[in-house]
Amino acid sequence: MLNRPKAFNSLTRTILDDLAIALTDFEQDDNIRVVVLAATDCPAFCAGADLKQVLEKAEPGEKDFLMQCRTSFGALRNCSKPVIAAINGMTMVGGLELTMCCDIVIASNKATLGDAHSNFGVFPGVGGAAILPKLVPVNVAKYLLFTGKSLPASEMKQYGLVNEIVEHEQLYSRVQELCDDLAEKSPLVLQRMKKIANQAQDQTRQSALDSELLELREHFLSADIQEGLAAFSEKRKPVFIGN
Questions:
Q1: Cα-Cα-Cα-Cα dihedral of 232, 234, 240, 242, to 10°?
Q2: Distance in angstroms (rounded) separating the CA atoms of residues 12 and 202
Q3: How far, CA to CA in Å, does 181 sit from each of 34, 119, 167, 176, 186?
Q4: Where are the domains of the chain?
Q5: For residue range 9-21, what is the model confidence (pLDDT) as tens digits?
Q6: Cβ 95 vs Cβ 69: under 8 Å
Q7: pLDDT tens track for 162-192
Q8: Is the separation of the CB atoms in 113 and 160 below 8 Å?
Q9: Chain mean position to CA 239
Q10: What residue ranges carry the coiled-coil annotation (predicted)?
């Protein structure tokens, strides 16, 4: 939970540390099936990095702010469990880059998303220019990057960055509903699907297909696939244990 409402939930070293620690804990807890990134109810989901901390010099042997962002954002992107972003309001600069690390984006109808780096003569460092063109049409990515403008979540849904738009008051109940649904799926199959889908972004089609087939052969040895097939045959709801 991003919880700096007076600072529009801007990112600090403490928040980045807390995020990395929480993700490590979540990975080790089999009872946690889905991770949700949300913010306190203020006009912003995340307005980017705290510029004071960005400009601070790192102590000898310490990661600078941007490398700390890379580490924590990478942990979020590579989390083996489904990660949902609940976008309640203004989302820009580092907030947009943070959102792009998530698997599913559910947004309030009051939310806006954009990249404002160019407004301040700042170059993105954790995905703005490198990842955004992979998630939306390249001309849309360039428009957002060059103009520094934000677009309503409804428009970003048309471009594929946002999965669902809901009424502002229904945001967290809809996210909870989605979490409940995903929690009933096989955590093992979701983990493997996410792994292959992520790898495929940097592979040829044939390499991605080969990786998928190898993963399927491994999955044939799991208890979850046996439970799923048995439940289908017996016309009952499957109960997955994740192995």
A1: -70
A2: 30
A3: 10, 40, 20, 9, 11
A4: 5-183, 187-234
A5: 999 999 999 999 9
A6: no
A7: 999 999 999 999 999 999 999 999 999 999 9
A8: no
A9: 26
A10: none
